[in-house]
Every structure is written in structure tokens, then in C-alpha cells.
Task: inverse folding
């Protein structure tokens, strides 16, 4: 199946700094990617839809100025957590649909963010 | 409000036992339904999906699920589990009016299969 990678897999940052997380579709192109957040022992919550060449669509309650999304190419979407705070510590997962397999969603391995 | 609920958060069973995980959703319209699995240290993977047609859906690794529209349910089953089925299982829903790929997930069920 298709492969989606994320980088880094794990990051620790200090409060007030910004962190960028990359999501790449390695063997297919994705005009749309999705960013999820997962708290310990909880479900994945959709944060936003990343659209190649246009603005991201954010879910209700997600601060777009805090979670900046850029989908600059057909294989790369980035999520930047700006002015991070400890409550932003979480597991961030991206996914991308592959039209070759009827738009089945392929998920990245996730990025563990810890803000100290 | 739209929601997806999974009945069990943690299930422990022995090899060769049968497994059934419950999933109920609350949506006003037509939905696409999914079960995903996440093995320890790995990505989420699709087990099976239902869009339309036969409500009994067969997936990979011997899993199947049944869509019961009247009960808003999409329960996952496997007749005989193996130790390698130890994983976390997520039910997910895509409402037909939403953009494709926009999924709402249940809380997940951690399944532990003992030898």
C-alpha cells in the first residue's frame, strides 16, 4: 500500500517556541491531507484539512493562528505549532487519501510533541 | 451532535476465542464506515470499510463487520483470534456530506490476546 511518513517522530520543545511537523506522501500525490491530534488513551480528533495550493480548512475549536498548515506541494504538508504551551503536548497524526486505491486513507506514524 | 462510540475500551481474551467489538454512530444522514487497526508501534491501517451494498463486509486478516442501519451499528468480528491480533482498534465514520477523508473516530478499543 501507499506510504505516508512524518518527521520528526518525536520532539521536545520549550514553551513559547514553534515546532514544525512534516507529513509526506512517499509514493503518491495527495491534493488533500488531514491532520489529527490524539491525546493519551483517547480518540483521534480531526484538526484540519490541508489543501494543496490553498488555505487549510480548520475544524471548529482549532486555532488556525496557532496551528499553521502549509500544503506547498502534492507530497508535503506541514503543521507548525506556534508559541507552543504544555497543553499542546500530544500525538499528531497526518493522513492522505490515495486515489489509486479508491481514496483509501493512509496514515503517518505520528509525531509525539512534548512541550516543557 | 455527531458521535462515534465504541463500547469497550479494553478487551482481554485468549487465542482462538471469538472477538466482537461494538461501534455505534450518531449521524443524521448517510455514512461511510471504517475499522482501523493500530499494531504496537505501527501506523493506523484499514481493516475494512462499508460504503453501500452487502451489509456484511469482509476485511483483511479474517475480520468482518456488519452494518445494521436500524441500530446505527457497525460491529467488528473475528471468529478465532491470534496473539498477533493484539492491537488497538478504531471505528471511524465519514458522513457523506463531508469531504472525502474527513473521519470521526471512536475512542478505540485496546485488544490483548493472550497465548
Result:
Amino acid at each position: 500500500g501507499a506510504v505516508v511518513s512524518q518527521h520528526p517522530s518525536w520532539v521536545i520543545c520549550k514553551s513559547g517556541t514553534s515546532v514544525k511537523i512534516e507529513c509526506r506522501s512517499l509514493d503518491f500525490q495527495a491534493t488533500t491531507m488531514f491532520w489529527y491530534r490524539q491525546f493519551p488513551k483517547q480518540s483521534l480528533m480531526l484538526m484540519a484539512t490541508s489543501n494543496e495550493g490553498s488555505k487549510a480548512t480548520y475544524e471548529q475549536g482549532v486555532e488556525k493562528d496557532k496551528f499553521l498548515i502549509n500544503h506547498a506541494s502534492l507530497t508535503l504538508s506541514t503543521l507548525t505549532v506556534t508559541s507552543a504551551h504544555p497543553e499542546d503536548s500530544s500525538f499528531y497524526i497526518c493522513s492522505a487519501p490515495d486515489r489509486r486505491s479508491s481514496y483509501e486513507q493512509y496514515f503517518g506514524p505520528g509525531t509525539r510533541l512534548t512541550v516543557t | 451532535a455527531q458521535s462515534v462510540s465504541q463500547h469497550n475500551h479494553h478487551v482481554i481474551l485468549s487465542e482462538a476465542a471469538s472477538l466482537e467489538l461494538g461501534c455505534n454512530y450518531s449521524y443524521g444522514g448517510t455514512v461511510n464506515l471504517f475499522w482501523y487497526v493500530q499494531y504496537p508501534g505501527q501506523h493506523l491501517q484499514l481493516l475494512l470499510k462499508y460504503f453501500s451494498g452487502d451489509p456484511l463486509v469482509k476485511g483483511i486478516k479474517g475480520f468482518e463487520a456488519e452494518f445494521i442501519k436500524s441500530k446505527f451499528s457497525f460491529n467488528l468480528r473475528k471468529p478465532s483470534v491470534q496473539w498477533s491480533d493484539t492491537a488497538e482498534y478504531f471505528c471511524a465514520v465519514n458522513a457523506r456530506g463531508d469531504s472525502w477523508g474527513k473521519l470521526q473516530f471512536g475512542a478505540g478499543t485496546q485488544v490483548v490476546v493472550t497465548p
Observations:
- The mean pLDDT of chain B is 92.
- The radius of gyration of chain B is 14 Å.
- Chain B touches chain A through 20 residues (CB under 8 Å).
